[in-house]
Write a structure and sequence with these properties.
Blueprint lengths: L2 E3 L12 E3 L8 E5 L4 H21 L3 E6 L2 E7 L5 H6 L10 H11 L2 H4 L2 E5 L5 H8 L3 E6 L4 H8 L7 E5 L8 E6 L2 E6 L22 H15 L5 E6 L2 E7 L4 H17 L3 H4 L9 H11 L5 H4 L17 H8 L5 E5 L7 H7 L3 E6 L6 H10 L3 E4 L8
Parallel strand pairs: 6-7, 7-8, 13-14, 14-15
Antiparallel strand pairs: 1-2, 3-8, 4-5, 4-6, 9-10, 11-12, 11-13
Helix pairs in contact: 1-7, 3-5, 5-6, 8-13
Length: about 400
């Protein structure tokens, strides 16, 4: 099959629409279920590249949760702690496979953004992962294959219309890539940059110690950024992205946005949040929304009299600013990556508030000394990679 006609492009008024191989060869994918759209395929192909690189870099199964051509989460398949299993709403599923753990982490880091995601998996989708996917609100999944029982589970989703794509893991694209904007063709070499531990060898701060586990986290951050709309910043902890700031015009706004998401991830693990007395019949999406409001500045939107009764069995106490700061101060050893240089030390100041200890960024700003000084102030270790990772 050389081409696939799509229902429409980015929007319903954009017709005709298709994906095809310009050289006349067969498409490297098969649609096993559903009818994926234009944006679905953009998410699928970007996500597949991301998880493939994570697998190569770490040797672990990888998953990503994409929304609007940027990842909402990305992770490798490390075991889940009891607390993580609870905040990701998978504690009722028993012990999960490594691939299912990877998706639970990728989906769970920022559940609000992952709502209605497109999933990419580095490995053959197993039953554990399919069971997890089946109960989440999602548009589709791409993987190199599917266990027969897993495929049957996924085919039951959305009344048989869930998008399931199989991609040839041996497919290698041409070294040049093209796209058109306003009728004008752009051409560039593909970004084949390999990110591994050597990427972080140039440590420019007083603290030179970046342990192997932190190098893995930094690699996850930078590979994630390679497929995130720029400007972008990514916070990573223990093998998973915990905050991604994408598509902002200002670097500090990326750092703040990603930092707030990382903070929310950590706040959800506080006992005060874990013990919220939700009503038994509350839907998963409503529960996620309530938690997001409860830990944020607009907590009265869910705690006001006449409102809290819709969500909780009893009215929760306010999670005060002081309580939140005390809990956030316990978050440590976070890795941070940036797709381009930090122009000011304010990015480091904000990162410090979210427990960042390890930083990777290209370097090259006229104020590099100011950024290095800010890192030294907090005993952070920062590597200059010398390489930008813009993605548009």
């Amino acid at each position: 099959m050389n081409e696939l006609e799509l229902k429409y492009g980015c929007n319903p008024n954009q017709k005709p629409s298709r994906i095809y191989m310009e050289d006349g060869s067969d498409l490297p994918i098969k649609v096993l279920c559903g009818r994926p759209g234009y944006i679905n395929f953009l998410d699928a192909f970007n996500g597949w590249q991301l998880v493939s690189e994570l697998k190569k870099a770490t040797g672990l199964p990888a998953a990503t949760s994409f929304k609007h051509v940027s990842p909402a989460g990305a992770a490798v398949g490390l075991p889940l702690s009891e607390t993580l299993a609870k905040i990701y709403w998978v504690d009722d599923l028993g012990e999960l496979s490594p691939l299912a753990c990877a998706y639970a982490r990728a989906r769970g880091a920022d559940r609000m953004s992952s709502f209605g995601d497109f999933i990419s998996l580095s490995d053959v989708c197993d039953v554990d992962t399919a069971r997890l996917i089946k109960r989440e609100v999602s548009d589709g999944v791409i993987a190199p294959g599917y266990e027969p029982e897993a495929l049957e589970i996924l085919k039951q989703k959305k009344n048989g219309n869930y998008n399931v794509i199989q991609i040839d893991p041996d497919y290698v694209p041409a070294p040049l890539e093209r796209k058109e904007v306003f009728g004008i063709t752009f051409e560039q070499g593909r970004n084949e940059l390999k990110i591994d531990e050597k990427f972080f060898a140039n440590v420019v701060t007083d603290n030179k110690e970046i342990p192997e586990s932190a190098k893995v986290d930094l690699a996850i951050a930078m590979i994630t950024l390679k497929y995130t709309q720029s400007n972008s910043v990514c916070y990573v902890k223990d093998g998973q992205a915990i905050g991604i700031g994408a598509g902002q015009q200002s670097r500090i706004h990326c750092t703040r946005l990603a930092g707030q998401k990382a903070d929310n991830w950590w706040l959800r693990q506080c006992p005060k949040v874990l013990e919220l007395p939700f009503k038994d019949d509350i839907r998963r999406a409503d529960r996620d929304n309530a938690i997001d409001l409860y830990i944020g500045d607009e907590y009265m939107d869910v705690l006001a009299d006449g409102v809290w009764e819709n969500t909780f069995k009893t009215k929760p106490e306010v999670f005060t600013r002081e309580e939140k700061r005390t809990w956030l101060d316990k978050l440590t050893d976070v890795a941070l990556g940036s797709d381009a240089f930090f122009p000011f030390g304010d990015n480091i100041e904000r990162a410090h508030k979210s427990g960042v200890k390890y930083v990777a960024q290209p370097g090259g700003s006229v104020r590099d000394d100011n950024v290095i000084d800010a890192c030294n102030k907090y005993q952070m270790a920062m590597a200059f990679t010398g390489l930008r990772l813009f993605h548009h």
